[in-house]
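Anyone? Bumping this.
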Amino acid sequence: MKRSLLLLTLAGAVAMQSCKMKTTSSAVTGDAAARTYVAPGKYDELYNFVSGGFNGQVSVYGLPSGRLLKLIPVFSVHPENGYGFSEESKPMLQTSFGFVPWDDQHHLALSQTNGEHDGRWLFANANNTPRVARIDLTTFKTMEIIELPNSGGNHSSPFLTENTEYVIAGTRFAVPVGNQESALDNASYKKNFKSTASFIGIDKNTGQMNVSFQIILPGMDLDLSRAGKGPSHGWFFFSTYNTEQASTLLEVNASQKDKDFIVAVNWKKAEEYVKAGKAKKMATEYYHNTFNEETHSASSSVVKEVLTLDPEELDGLVYLIPCPKSPHGCDVDPSGEYIVGSGKLAALIPVFSYQKFTKAIADKAFEGEYNGIPVIKYEAALHGEVQKPGLGPLHTEFDANGNAYTSFFVSSEIVKWSLKDLQVLDRVPTYYSIGHLMVPGGDTKKPYGKYVVAYNKITKDRYLPTGPELAQSAQLYSIEGEKMQLLLDFPTIGEPHYAQAIPAEKIQAKSVKFFDITKNKHPYLSAGEKATKVVREGNVVHVYMTAIRSHLTPDNIEGVQVGDEVYFHVTNLEQDWDIPHGFAIKHAPNAELLVMPGETATLKFSPIKPGVYPFYCTDFCSALHQEMQGYLRVSPKGSNVPLKWGTGTEAPVEEVASR
Amino acid sequence: MIFKNGQRNKSAAPCKQLMNKLSIVAKVSIFIAIGCIATLWFVPMWRIDLAAPQYPEGIFMQIWINDIKGDVDIINGLNHYIGMKTIHKEDFREFVYLPAALGIFCVLGLVVLLRNRRRAFYIWTALLLAMAALSMYDFWKWEYDYGHNLDPSAPIKVPGMAYQPPLIGYKKMLNFEALSQPDAGGWFFIAAVVLLTAVSVYEWKRAKKMI
């Protein structure tokens, strides 16, 4: 009796054990390790550019290994290499509200030619202080940052047209235009607040950005956007929420309507209106910062006006397509025919047809107007709905075989479905609560496919714990077969939102190894050690310094006084691959400089106390890196110590000793 | 010997004349040899490849008849640690003499052709051999000088260590592996030497047969 009771208990325990909820560690099967293993000395197949979210930077990973290759400073200062600290880079972060050292970087777009990634530039948005940046993919450096006037929360950005004619900037937070103040209530919101869609024109050859025109839309939140392509080239589509026009508790107030909108902007028509002189000039002020590769320095210019277009007055410029429940993603398939809206709170995914949309306009199949803009009948533009796909659809990308991949935040999964018949084909869990996903080239006319990457919002138990603050988690899945297969789980830094990926060969061979010193036009260049000097201009002291393995010239400097502003202009004389030199000086309330071969960079230091200040090379450059050091003598104000400098002016110590 | 015989035998004058003249093979070889030497103005003569753990991609130096090309600045930068002199094009008088000597050699080839005498051909061949030997000796001397005359205040001093690169072939020096070998122009030069030597032997045997 006792024995049978024991057996029963045991059986019960085993049964309970088998009832335990599934864990996530069992999800990887088969040859996943072999498919993501990049052997030492081998390269990854793809560059993966990942937005940094609240770190304001862009990180670069290799795929399929998930290895972090680089962090590109864009909207946040980066003491590691002096970005935002060196005199040359400070202007990059200037805005009409002064120097802004941080931002929230959400989305990325690789430049395109004929609807395909061409590997020239990468565009990045800043959500908080509305800006768009351009990164050069030969140097992986931020070359340009443009501020946006009349904007709050530059979220639906920096998406591109198929030949990189324009990069878009749409406002997530409607604000009164011209930075006017306004009472904060729903009535004032309706009256004073506007959204804007800024079309930033891009120079075909240089990539230089300029705000071409701005479309002033009714106050609502523009979330994400995509340009049309192929047949729909000439249109831009935005998802919206808060078409309820609430200024407070949006969680509830912006979730009331059954449908918000996809905003369809005919930018070719906008160009015509601008040409015909229908745009209004509005006085404003915004910064445009550019980095010059020859002077290795950034400069800022202030733009004083912007052209605006009013869709209430200009026919055929903007149409609204109803879209269920606060859509986030607004994605155009590779053919350019289908526009997928992803209503965050919807239980289905609507797919609109570009052909039907244009027919609806021709037939005037409108259900009414919203703030003077025609609203197309939902069914008239609808291709169909994906039924019961999951909970909380956010964003959709595509492969080259007519399949779509949608991320679901709430049900934490990726769902693969067919564009043709809108049937769900497969689903895989993500760990946990995926935000954006990315198929390499999945936003272009010719997706590269092969993988889909999930960029998740919640990490929890994925990696060894690191206290309350964790890295973010990403997963790589193969999409080569019928079924998606989890291959790799890797931590990411910052908080990735959207990302881009491009085959390595489109960038690899163009990567710059060092800067040609003969082309260096920095005003404080020292072209060789003989050109080094120290120049006093009042209380400003310019040190023309060179760095080469393994000494700085000059490395002994005297005659500087308390109250002086000392500028160390360090030129790296090396002309070889991967020989940067660093520069740091004791007590400088600043960062270090990391100077690439052939480059000149400047660190400002204003000593506040007399004494001797060691300085040194911070990048382990050579066998005698540790010897690459020097001293700055700082005398009290008004001292008569003359200006004196040099390197190696003293005889070697051994000789001195023997004398 | 043959020549002497020919001079002695006055009755065989027509034969002697025939004997002393160049064969068609020799005449063609003059053009080919001049062509080979002329390539030296267009392609490098010698090359030294260097590899180290820090230089997986390798660095190299190419010696032309009138220039040094390749990663000379990088090599100079590295050599200062061990106190080797920096390499500068201006230091080599050879870059003036060598093109002049080779130019004269080519002109002399045409003279040999016009003179149409075997003896002249032999002298011309010997001249090339002498130039080759002298050049290699000079090259070795430079290498010895660079490798041994080190700055006494150099940061890195390895007792007993010299940094003379190999004249030809492979050598390991500290963290660097060096490979020294003819480049395209060098091979053309070698081809000219082999060709003229072979034709000289051929001419000599031919003359011997005629006696």
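Late reply, but here is one note on the structure posted above: DSSP finds seven helices and five strands in chain B.
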